[in-house]
Each structure stands twice: as C-alpha cells, then as structure tokens.
Amino acid sequence: MQTLLAGSQSLQLEKVVQESDVITAVASCRRNAAACPRCQMTSSKVHSRYERTIADLPWADLAVRIQLRARKFFCVNTECSQRIFCERLAEVVNPYGHRTVRLDEMLAAIGFALGGRAGSRLAQRLSIQTGADSLLRRIRQAAPRPAGDLKVRVLGVDDWALKKGQHYGTILIDLEKHRPIDLILGRESAPLAEWLKDHPEVEIIARDRAGAYADGARKGAPQAQQVADRWHLLKNANEAFERLIQRQQKVIREAIEKIPVMEKATPPAEVPQVAVVPETASEYMRSRTTREQRQAFHAERIVCYDQVQELKRQGYSIIQIKKHLGWSYGAVAGFFHADEYPVIRRKKGRSCLDKFDHYLRQRWAAGCHNAAQLYQELCEKGYTGSKLTVRRHVQLWRDQNARSLAPASPKLSAPSPRSRVWLLLKNDERLTDEERQLRATILCISPLVKQGLELVKSFREAICGRHEKALEAWIETATKSRLPEFENFVKALRRDETAVRAAASSEWSSGQTEGHVNRLKVLKRQMYGRANFDLLRARVLNAA
Prior knowledge:
single chain, alpha/beta, Nucleotidyltransferase, domain 5, 5-stranded mixed beta sheet, 21 helices, 12 strands, flat
C-alpha cells in the first residue's frame, strides 16, 4: 500500500516537524536485527547510532526530508572481514544515498522524459531540488535492459542523423514489441552485420532500400527474410515517372500554354474591402504593406460599426452604448447616426509636384512612361523634389496602362514535373476544374505519359494491396514498355528482388521504424546541443 512515508513497513514514524517550506519526518527502523552486507549473517548486537537526512517526495508542494535514526551493528561472524556495518534499508534508500529510492525513480523518469534543463525546471516546480547535470547523470547510470529483453524476431532498421550531412547512426526496432532495442554509430553494413551475428534469433528484417543495410543484413543474418520499405518503393516509382515527364516537358508546356484560363466567378468577400478614395487620379498608395494595414484597420472599424448598430436596434441610447463598450461619446455617436458604414476619405496634401502635374500628364499621354526621364525633364524646369516622388506620382497611371494592355484570355502556367506527378495521381473527386483540364491536356498530348501513369498506378496497387502475383505481372509489363525510365527502375528492383517481393506480400514494413526515428529526433532536439551518443542512446532506449 502506498503511503506518505517512504518504507512505512520498515520505518516507524516518531514525529513530524513542519516549517515554512519544508516538512521533516523523524523516523527510526522497526527491525531489531540487520544482515551483514558482506556475509549476509543476521546480527542484533548494536554498535552505535547515528542520524542521516534523506530527501523524499514532496507533500502538497512542500519539500520533505526524513531524519532517519539509523544504527550500526557488530558482525557476529568471526570469519567475516566486515567487523562493523550499517543497517541497510533497500526499500527506502540506497547505501550512502541522500534521496529515497522512490525520489530517485521519479527524478530518473523526469530525466528520461524531458532531459536535463527542462527536467530540472519541472522538478523545481514540483518542489524537488535538483539540477540538470544530476538528471543527466541518472540517465547515463540507468541499468541496461536484461539480456532476455533483447531477443528480437522481427527487426526494423533505419538510419538517423546525429549531425545531418556529417555523422549518422542506425536505429534498431523490435517491431513486435513496438520499442527501440539499440542504437549503432554509423550506417554502413559492417556495424549492422556485427550486431546481427550476436542475435541469430532474428527472422525478419524490415529495412529501407539502402544497399549498405541489404549487404549488412545478408552477411549478419543470412537466415532472415528481408522486407523492403514500401514507402521507398512507391517513391522510386514516382521518381521514374517524374523523369519520364521531364523528357516530355517541352511538348507538355507548349500544350498547356495554349489553354485559356477558365473564367471563375468572384466569390463575395466576407469583409467589405474599403479603399481610400483619392482626390486625384495620381494618388499612390506607398506600398502593399500600407494597403494591407489600412484594410485591416477598416475591417476592425466595420466590426465596431456593426456592434453599435446592433445595440441601437435593441433600443439602447448613445450613453448606454458608451458605458457598455467603454468607448468615447464621439466614437459611438459617429457610428450611431450613420445609415451606412462611414468611409474615411483622405484629403490630398500639398505636393511640390502640383505645379508640374499638367506637364506630366501631357508627357505621359505622348508616350513617355520612363519615370527617370520625366524626373530629368522636371529638374530642368525647376523641380527640387526626389525621383521617388515622381515615380510614386505616375505609378497609378502605370498600373492603369498595365491593366488595359493585359491579355483578354490569360494562359495557364505549366506546373513543375513533380507537381504534374501528383496532379496525375490525384483522385478525380479532389481535382478542381482547372486541374482536370490540365490533366486531360497532358494525357491527350503525350501517350508516353499516359502509359507511364498506368504503370505507376498498377505498381501502387500491387504494392499497397499486397499482391505479389500482380507485382510479377507488372515487372513483365514494365520490362516490355520501351520506357527507359521504367526499364531502369525494373533493373533496380531485380537487384533487390527478394526483399521487393516480400514487401508485396509481408505484413511488416518500416513505417513503425520511421515513427521511432521521428521520436529520436524530438529527443535529440530537446537536449540543447548535449545529445552525446551515450546520453541519447540511454534516453531513446529507456524513455517510456
């Protein structure tokens, strides 16, 4: 039974002393005798008594310490070299320990879950005094799993980056027990082969398509069945299809660029877009950021206007609305009396270009649209402003010309080869009208792409549906397809044919291994640059 006092069956509580931030429990041992730690002979002959202070789990956010009145005994075995020994309370505290066993277990669990710094911050919040280095030390001192736990029948193998681009390692997963069993430095074949030689019980190895792992598994566990990763097989098939599309890229791009864009109905805006009304046609908003800020300002102002109008319809007066919303009287009154949203109109200030506006319009109408040239001509006429002011002054005219010269029927832009792969593989019900038009054009203009699409789809069905016979038929079809990309893909499959066939029939895959790799990355990034291999290995293998 769990109690507030650690080792209540072995200890007798004498009194409890409560201070402002700590509780001290004075206790003594219940037993009259103790066993010698060297010869295990029981002795009841007391030599002396002493006190030791032990930290325990906190009580209601208050730190707890046990003031233990311990004893020393004479060893009655004359042949034992240990003449005097201290009584052991294994269920309460370890020899020479300053924390109870259950507190050590709690700190170890915090260290495994959060690491050093984050774990120490949590421990402080739980009224447990410890530091980051103390938690990391507990992680490193964690007892290894028993040898029986390392027996594995179905093994998952994948690589992970200790330092991306420089140092890599290999993670080994027990796919039946859903937990990592070891980390190995390096992703070459030799370390994996050595590990497998020490574990002849391995029957199935699910791995990615790396040649090093295939070679290591073949040398270290020739009796095991290798299963290629299905995700990598599908990825390789997509890459072959992408290379085929790249070969047909010129034909496809020319066909797509001839397609006019389908007209789309403009959806009604959720929030009215209120623009600042300029006084003259040359008024220029300085930047897109400024326009977005003004639109956001008006959107908030519209919400305020709607609130006032809603309260007005409910029969509230201006004073009542003012008190309810906490606004000024003028702000409420302006919205209260307005029949529609009051648009703010900005008045145009005086500019040094005002007296040159007529000349600028004449030169613009004559076809001079170069702001730098216009600036030079204005300087000759006495203009003292900047070139940027001239460019801003004529920007609206430039935008109007661009809109008037825009083509009546814009063309579709050709997607990248990789985007075309997913466009062609996408389910029809998830396609937009424009995407359907693109796909139909690509398949119509290039029979080779259409043939490649059929090969990719049938390969995905064979792999995902676990149809080994369908895979054999697909290999024969792809070999006779006269498509170099898929012929080369088939050659790569034949080099690892046994593992590929197993992927099309076995229930095991590397998906679970990829999940553990992602978990390993999370643990590594939690450690703020202190992810040494031994520390990382201890956390990965022992964290719950």
